[in-house]
Structure formats: structure tokens, C-alpha cells
Amino acid sequence: MTPSPTAILSERELAVKLGISYWTIRELRLRQGLPHFRCGKKVLYRLITVLEWIEQQEQASTQRGSAPANDSPIRQVQ
Questions:
Q1: Distances from the Cα of 70 to the Cαs of 12, 31, 73, 76, in angstroms?
Q2: Model's pTM, two decimal places?
Q3: Residue 60 CA to chain centroid, in angstroms?
């Protein structure tokens, strides 16, 4: 059964839905502000909000071009 866009998912469920690792979801939340909320100690995600956030990231990326942002942890080796 495919979750609806209004579905609320755990980190592991979101990772499966997006086809990426649990650790990637966690890193996106901690380092890049992936929208989430807590229910007690559990971290949850509203699918529609995450999909909108991904779209915003994609738009920002195409506006910046291929150059990495200044706050990127990736640096050039000279």
C-alpha cells in the first residue's frame, strides 16, 4: 500500500519511501533542516512537507548552478 501525501512516517519509513538510507534521512534532518516533528522521543515526518522541502532544495540548487554553496562541508583540494 502506497502512503498518501498526508501520511506521517518514521525515519525508517521515510527512507524506504524515498529510496535512500535511514542515515541519509538522519543527516538531512540534523545538517540541512529536513522538516520533522517529535512525538515524545520519536522523530516523525509528514510526507507532503518533506516532498515540498525536496522541491525547494531542487529549485535552490538549480538557481545556484553547479557551484557548491559557501557553507558546504565539501571543499576543493588544491
A1: 31, 15, 9, 11
A2: 0.72
A3: 14
Q: What is the pLDDT of residues 3-49, one digit of tens each?
A: 676 799 999 999 999 999 999 999 999 999 999 999 999 999 999 99
Q: Cα separation of 35 and 29, whole Å?
A: 7
What are the DSSP E strand ranges found in the chain? 8-10, 37-39, 42-46
Distance CA 3, CA 9 (A): 9
Surface-to-core class of residue 12, CB atoms within 10 Å of its CB (0-12 exposed, 13-18 middle, 19+ buried): exposed
Dist. CA 9–CA 22, nearest whole Å: 12
